[in-house]
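re the bet — no i am not wrong, look at it urself. input seq straight from the record:
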Amino acid sequence: MTTTETLPTTVLGASGIEVGTQGLGCMGMSEFYGASDLTESRATLDRALELGVTLFDTADIYGSGHNEEFLADFVRANRDRVVLATKFGIVRKADNPTYRGIDNSAGYIRAAVDASLRRLGIETIDLYYMHRRDVRVPIEDTVGVLAELIAAGKVRALGLSEVTGAELRAAHTVHPIAAVQSEWSLFSRDVENTAVPAAAELGVAFVPYSPLGRGFLTGSFGTAGELADTNDFRRAMPRFTGDNAARNAELLTPVRAIAEARGVTPAQVALAWVHSRAAAHGLPVVPIPGTRSRERLAENVAAAALTLSADELATLEPIAAQVAGSRYADMSFTSAGRE
């Protein structure tokens, strides 16, 4: 499937912000998936705009600020077309690369947004996410501070990442939430328990991250040991190691079969399934597969035009329940433990 037709558009909740129905996750251009070719990454950004991708997703922790700095020139050069999403809330330490903390305090949020604006070289962030929930801070208080940022002109719309349905509802009473971002794919469907129904009820858009299972659903690797770069964070993820990897690789058989029958790639089948969730659940769905390659980008965008049949969807339905291993080694860093 090689079509390069421009993507259709949808709106992020009640914000009025219109975006292409597929975005681009930019994290890997700076960190986590091994070395990146920044020249090709920049070309990928430009090509994305040509194909109708308008939502570009980053966070202040990606490369410890590098990803925002890398995107800055591109965003400023295309400010009238780019919808820039970034995030706050995950804390790193320069002297401990493995450390991850969470901070939703008012002072931290105010400092974080100013730092992101400075790195990006812009006056307003289009979509500002709470990256992770700090349970020490009532979510209503967090959203109250974010609403102040909107009033100050620093942010256009608010997003939440890895929240439960109850948390989304509580947040929405303080200020309308435009989008929820959480992992959602053929391998990860726990968001359908409470977060997706709440988003549909409230008119909130859903932005699935890792819609390709961090590349596993593409069939590009079968175990973490096949990932050549020792800095690739997937090497330590439970689903991609040991017996889990072998069991999960077997689950790709129906994905490959559908892809072969339709003359498309497994990645396109997996992405088409995520796009089908919009109709299945009655809400805008804007997946943000990450890539650093123009070739992969075109493949991903083409998947938005692929409609799976009822029989194909039924064939894919049982996969998630059979996946071995958790999404992260430490699931306390997600919404799962609060459901």
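see?? The CA atoms of residues 185 and 211 lie 5 Å apart. told u. also The chain has eleven helices and eleven strands. so pay up
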